[in-house]
Amino acid sequence: MRNIQNLEANASKHSVVKVGDGLYDITSGGSGNTYHVVLTLGLAGESVRATCDCKWGTSHRHYDHSVMCSHSIAAVKAEIAEQGASAAFFSGVGNARAAAGKQPVVKFGDGISVVLY
Ligand SMILES: [Zn+2]
Predict the structure, then answer these.
(1) What are the backbone angles phi and psi of residue 32, rounded to the nearest 5°?
(2) 18 in a domain, yes or no?
(3) How far is the CA of 73 from the centre of ligand 1 (A)?
């Protein structure tokens, strides 16, 4: 399971450009490289499906095809913001459910879950 605090800190440094429905160009705040994220956000208790063409993203495909890189997190945050919602990320679905109350919990890859507000 990856450290969600570190991932979010890195994600906040990237610049995000939406180029199509669920398609994002993410330019790294560290390297300046641009990566391509394809996102399907299931809002009804389903999983987020995300792919990214960064080194991590192409070498860590999970069973649900979601990758947990900072680029995919930046894209998820942009997508959720566009829908007028906000999100909190948690390591472990149990932690997310405990914090969520009646809010929906969306599963991401690698043990990370997102609570939508
Ligand atoms: Zn990536």
Answers:
(1) 80, -5
(2) yes
(3) 9
Query: Are 83 and 53 spatial neighbours (Cβ–Cβ below 8 Å)?
Result: no
pTM of the model: 0.86
pLDDT (tens digit, 9 = 90+) per residue, 52-111?
999 988 887 655 557 789 999 999 899 888 888 888 999 888 889 999 999 888 887 777
- Asked if the structure places residue 115 within a domain, the reply is no
- Distances in Å between the Cα of 83 and the Cα atoms of 8, 30, 41, 43, 117 are 19, 27, 11, 11, 11
Q: Domain count for the chain, please give it.
A: 1
In this structure, which amino acid lies at residue 111?
G
Q: How far is the CA of 60 from the centre of ligand 1 (A)?
A: 10
In a domain, 105, yes or no: no
